Amino acid sequence: MKVIELRRKYVEFFEERGHKVMASASLVPDNDVTVLFTTAGMHPLIPYLLGERHPFGKRLVNIQKCVRTGDIDEVGDGSHHTYFEMLGNWSLGDYFKKESITMSLEFLTEVLNIPMKNLSVTVFEGDAEVARDTETYHLWKQVGLTDSQIYYYGRKENWWGPVGLTGPCGPDTEIFYDNGNKKCCVTCGPSCSCGKYVEIWNNVFMEYNKNQDGSYSPLKQKNVDTGMGLERILRVVNGKENDYETELFYPIIEKVEELTGVKYGKENERIFRIVSDHMRAAVFILGDEKEVVPTNSEQGYILRRIIRRTIRYIKLLGNNENILVEIADKIIDMYDNAYPELGDHRTFILEKLDKEYQSFSKSLVEGLKKAEKYFKGVSETKILNGELAFRLFDTFGFPIEFTEELAQEKGYSVDVIGFELKFKEHQEKSRIGASGRFNKNVAN
Ligand SMILES: [Zn+2]
After folding, report:
1. Do the Cβ atoms of 150 and 195 come closer than 8 Å?
2. What's the gap in Å between 339 CA and the centre of ligand 1?
3. What's the pLDDT tens digit per position in 179-205?
4. Which residues, 6 or more positions from 224, have their beta carbon under 8 angstroms from its beta carbon?
5. pTM for the model
6. Which of 54, 65, 64 is nearest to 19 (CA)?
7. What is the DSSP code string of 363-430?
8. What are phi and psi of 432, to 5 degrees?
């Protein structure tokens, strides 16, 4: 199944069932200072999940652009990404568990043709504070799942929220694709990481309010919030081993092969995957309506970090040319029918990438040499102090996470707290030095 078809089928399925289609919100949240990027489809909906009336009504569906960098170190395996698309449908005080479960199952088995025997689900097992979610268990049984396909798990796996200390929260039920392989051990189940189970969909049932005193009371407006990663479901539907073999990534990998002359294979797959994942994220962040550019703060810093990390990984493939622009050009071609903002921003995206490459590629080579020297100097303690880490940042533009990664590869660590102290000291100095002259330019 083509991705264009999968996106359309998902939206149409829920539209036919009374859901209004929302466009993807910007990658940069509007009124949220707690996070830098939109991390899930529910993110822009928080005020409505809390009870505010949504202009589109009580049933919503969309495909949301998301960025998460919390597990950037895991990118390179088959399924972690910094940028991804999330398919979501919501009930704001309208339908609840029964309809949600029925619709999800119908979409998976009748639209995507996944056999029922290949599905497993997890349900909240309950604890001292909140009862076991037997309702969800019985609903799964009613629609045809057997006991051996339903697993009870605790809060870590099957509970969502609240966002802050108090507010709406509730159990969820997660749907997994079971590839039919033998169980790896007696405890093998959906939470096992052996690869037999792939999580595809999460349906959150917001039915409680967590109160100031820590107790839970039933909510008047019960909501459903679901999320399904597009990359993951596309892989499952097409029987691919990992997300990078789908059309969402493979053409990028081929472009990198063409530009570097290096073949993608077992020994370098992590590098190819990081490059294609990060380049896709960079293109979407630069192509967003909010026009984020590489800087040393907030969203711009994350973007800079992603691009600089990519430049280094491309170098690890033995390539010293600026191929960012050509890779990005390819990505825009792949995605601009679904996300026309990328095509509209093509020149902007390519120019910013080129500029970032020009400003970093030279200092990268010198910085790596310097870092090597610094590491030698601390070979006894194997801890790079904050002062040296700050010099790599200040002189060569190495984000601290970047230096940490270099250190880790050698079995060293970095004094990050020491780095932050140096960083603050430096900020103070430039603020004093610049006062009354060009204040505005100090932030970056
Ligand atoms: Zn297992």
Report:
1. no
2. 37
3. 999 999 999 999 998 989 999 999 999
4. 89, 90, 91, 95, 96, 97, 100, 203, 204, 205, 206
5. 0.90
6. 54
7. HHHHHHHHHHHHHHHTTTT-EE-HHHHHHHHHHH---HHHHHHHHHHHT-EE-HHHHHHHHHHHHHHH
8. -65, -45
Give pLDDT tens digits for 387-405.
999 999 999 999 998 999 9
Q: How far is ligand 1, taken at its centre, from the CA of residue 121, in Å?
A: 15
**Scanning the structure block, which residue is given the tokens 């630069």?**
286
Amino acid letter at 388?
L
Per-chain residues with Cβ under 5 A from ion ligand 1: 184, 188, 192, 194
Nearest to 145 by CA among 178, 112, 171: 178
The rounded Å distance from CA 196 to ligand 1 centre is 6
For domain 3-243, the CATH class is alpha beta
Let me know: does 82 contact 283? Beta carbons within 8 Å: no
Residue whose tokens read 């039933």: 218
Of the candidates 158, 156, 19, the residue with the CA atom closest to the CA atom of residue 99: 19
Expressed in angstroms and rounded, the spacing between residue 197 Cα and the centre of ligand 1 is: 8
Ligand 1 centroid – CA 238 distance (Å): 22
